[in-house]
Amino acid sequence: MKKYIKIPIFFLSLLPILIIFNQIIFNQLGPEPVKEITHVTGQWTLRFIIITLAMTPLQRITKLNFWISYRRMFGLFVFFYASTHMMTYVGIDYRFDWSSIGDDIIKKKFIFVGFLAWLLLVPLALTSSKRMIRFLRDKWKQLHKLIYLISLLGIIHFLWLVKIVTAEPLIYLIIIIILLMLRVRIK
Ligand code: HEM
């Protein structure tokens, strides 16, 4: 049964990137296509972080274990959208001009924080398999707590890049704080 729900959820999670591909093919990304792709992939990275963080509180509140079986898939979607987001910047926007990218990382604090968040996601993605969970045991739990830090770095990245703070990053921040507090409270 779980498998039959997982498949539609998997395709639903792919929807944002499929919409982008469709818009690229039909030239519907507007006057600043690269900005639009960065915008959508950045947004979805943050949304998938929130969805992933919500799985454990949902399991504890509803006492239903199936939430946990989706956590890994959503976590990998975080990495997928974060990597697509970063590659849009590195590959399309800067065409792998490493010296300009390096300059940006040093000079623009929002890029530095974004890069740091992506780098921290790498060990989580690499250790997401069931084999690694069994192999690392308690260390796996410790390592995957990095997602809390990553979620906050993602928000800081968003807050630092906007010139005027809008409601959107603040709403994400409030949701993340609630989710982190729920984890502490329902232990
Ligand atoms: C976990 C990692 C990350 C998260 C959650 C994230 C999230 C976001 C979000 C939500 C936005 C705003 C989208 C919008 O509304 O326009 C954004 C924009 C952006 N991000 Fe990230 N990001 C991450 C990593 C990175 C990395 C690694 C880079 C590149 C090194 C990067 C570069 C950018 C750029 C260039 C923008 C657009 C800035 C602008 O509009 O001027 N991000 N990101």
Descriptive key words:
187 residues, 0% strand, binds protoporphyrin IX containing FE, 9 helices
Summarize, please.
The protein is mostly helical and about 190 residues long. Helix content is about 85%, strand content about 0%. About 20% of the residues are buried.
List the helices and strands and how they pair.
Blueprint: H1 2-25, H2 33-62, H3 66-93, H4 98-107, H5 109-126, H6 130-136, H7 138-144, H8 146-161, H9 167-185
Helix pairs in contact: 1-2, 1-3, 2-3, 2-8, 2-9, 3-5, 4-5, 5-8, 6-7, 8-9
The protein binds protoporphyrin IX containing FE.
Protoporphyrin IX containing FE binds next to α2, α3, α5 and α8.
Structure in words:
With 187 residues, the chain is mainly α. It has one domain. 85% of the residues lie in helices and 0% in strands. It has nine helices and no strands. It has helices spanning 2-25, 33-62, 66-93, 98-107, 109-126, 130-136, 138-144, 146-161, 167-185. α2 (33-62) runs antiparallel to α8 (146-161), α2 runs parallel beside α9 (167-185) and α6 crosses α7 (138-144). The longest helix is centred in the first third of the chain and has 30 residues, at 33-62. Bound molecules: protoporphyrin IX containing FE. Protoporphyrin IX containing FE binds next to α2, α3, α5 and α8.
Q: How far apart are the termini?
A: 28 Å
Total number of β-strand segments? 0
Number of domains: 1
**What is the string of helix and strand elements?**
HHHHHHHHH
Shape, principal axes of CA atoms: globular
Largest sheet entry: none
Strand content: under 5%
Number of helices: 9
Radius of gyration, CA atoms, in whole angstroms: 17 Å
Instruction: Give the distinct bound molecules.
Output: protoporphyrin IX containing FE
